[in-house]
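Section: Multi-chain targets

For targets with more than one molecule, the full set of components is provided together so that the structure can be written out for the assembly as a whole rather than chain by chain. Components appear in the order listed by the source. The example entry contains two components.
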Amino acid sequence: MNGYGGQILRVNLTTGKIIKEKTSPEVARDFVGGRGFGAYYLFKEVPKGADSLGPENKLIISTGPLSGLMIPGAGKCDWTTKSPLTGGYASASLGGHFTAEMKYAGLDTIILEGISPKPVYLFIDDNKIELRDASDLWGKGTFEVEKQFKDKLGEEFQIAVIGPGGENLVTFASINHDYGRQAGRGGVGAVMGSKKVKAIVVHGTKSVAVADLKTYREAGMALYKACKEAEGLKEWTRYGTTIVTSWCNEVGALPTRNFSAGSFELGDNISGKTMREKIVITDKGCFGCPCPCGKYSRSKKHNLEVEGPEYETIGLLGSNLGIGDIDDVAKGNLLCDDLGIDTISAGGVVGWAMECTEKGILSKKDTDGIELKFGNAEAAFKFFEKIAHREGFGDLLAEGVRRAASEVGKGSEKFAIHIKGMEQSAYATHAATAMLLSYMTCDVGAHHNRSWAITYDLQVGREKVVPEKVARVIWLQNFRPMFDVLGGCRLQWVELSIDRDLYVPALEAITGIKRTWEDLEKVGERIWNLTRMYWARENEGFDRVWDMPPSRFYEEPPKTGATKDMITKLDDVQRLLDIYYEQRGWSNEGLPAPETLDRLGITTLVA
Amino acid sequence: MATKLRVLGPLQDYVGGRKELDIEPGHTVRDTLVSLGILPEAVALVSVNEELQAKDYIIQEGDTIRIMAVIGGG
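Its structure, encoded as tokens over all components, is:
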């Protein structure tokens, strides 16, 4: 199969049996790779009602046909599982250099199943594949473990590792790689921890067959040339995702004090410009990337070095906690990465607890003698540790904001900022209806990466609820995740405005299969509907209520900032869903209609 | 010395599809955007001679200013 490693590695941790299967040409035709493979195998192989932290759940790691090849940003793989945070579909994208080595080891997919009786790591060096004892690594932070492997095995081995967060089954535990890259969301790290897998180390030397070598080289070089000549490349490389921080603050989209507002009075202290001037020491990119968004920073205040922080972390660990010091954000970033917990969800649960304290729902007595007030960076640091180790009140926060609020009650559920159980990422959506709808309908919960529509809101009118806006969200949801399917990075298209048609000849030359973007968007739509059916299968009574946002975004207009007194009306929220379901070909309760499933060719799969 | 505004991506829709305009120094970026009919809030990035600047920046003679709308966040 041109463009593919050709093999699935199936690792049964209960029995220790490791087998290889051939990648299915039929599955590759219909689901292409990456996120598509993950969604397919999750639906097909993980039984209905499986405990997300039990032996029946699987962790599915997949590359795509672009992965590891000479295409800008082709260093992405997808980690899919049943989420312990949400109870639904989880899919996290990982950058860095892991993906390329996995592909060079001939692997399109790794499926971890069962539970090991003792801590292990999965060792892959081309055809030498073993489960090895990891008892001496259990309990250690991600940085120390990665360094140990690098020192022992050499720089060419790539490491994906969980920290104490994953070991202790924190529902939003992440998987760390390359010291600063994560498969971050949905608790993929907890699933790896439940299987007692501390790390995967991989190195490969095999070549990847392509259908038309000459055209592949030409098409790949055309993409690199377009990136290098893109206007804005210098700015993007200089600031990475932090380029957006000031703008979000200006337009009221920067999450502030648990999303109670969208503008932060100390926003300038955590802006991309301030960060670059104050702490950034160099840039850091993923495999094959000509426009590295990673920033490597040194904080003199805290005497540390860290990759980041990037925008999402600044939003959730900075303004959302009332913290207006980029050095403090950098320290929070470092702690979360080393402990192996997702910075977005960590900022969500701690922000909620801070608001509970502010409102008198929680006192110091409830929070282990620590005053969890907005702006108290030291308290936040302590709770990142407590969450990862499930100590004291941290044990409840480790369950995620939905369960924590349900336990604490007293009205705190109203400001638990999540959708489907996933804490919202870093865009405040009091007055941005396309972005609000993007979060409401995202296939993993309140995450931004499928449909990032906030600038579109500003361009066409942030309060408008019109079919064109909904159509834009749906198009983004079908199209953008295709980069995760193909095994590449979307940021070259998003940030540098690279013509997406340049990818078409490259993909054809690699796989030998002609696909237009229209064809690929249909694959995206197929996956979107399959994951929707997964939510419905796993959650009794799944309906439109699951798509509703936190009431804060339709009942509580911010009292300060750019969106002061602005709010989306509840009727408009419902209208957004009505239009969305109709355009998707779904019922009024948000379930794909039989003819929609039939049109997408997944009727039999979901039966 | 020419003072230029480079308009990237969908912001070109505000200025009849033009990619580059000559502008007057001495005004803030925000005022210049408004005078050109560009919604300031739709501009996510203002870069002056490749350095990030606020919209309150007062344009100097010879500056090359780039404005962008589409930024992906993370």
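The interface with chain A takes residues 6, 8-10, 39, 41-45, 47, 50, 52, 54-55, 66, 68-74 of chain B (CB under 8 Å).
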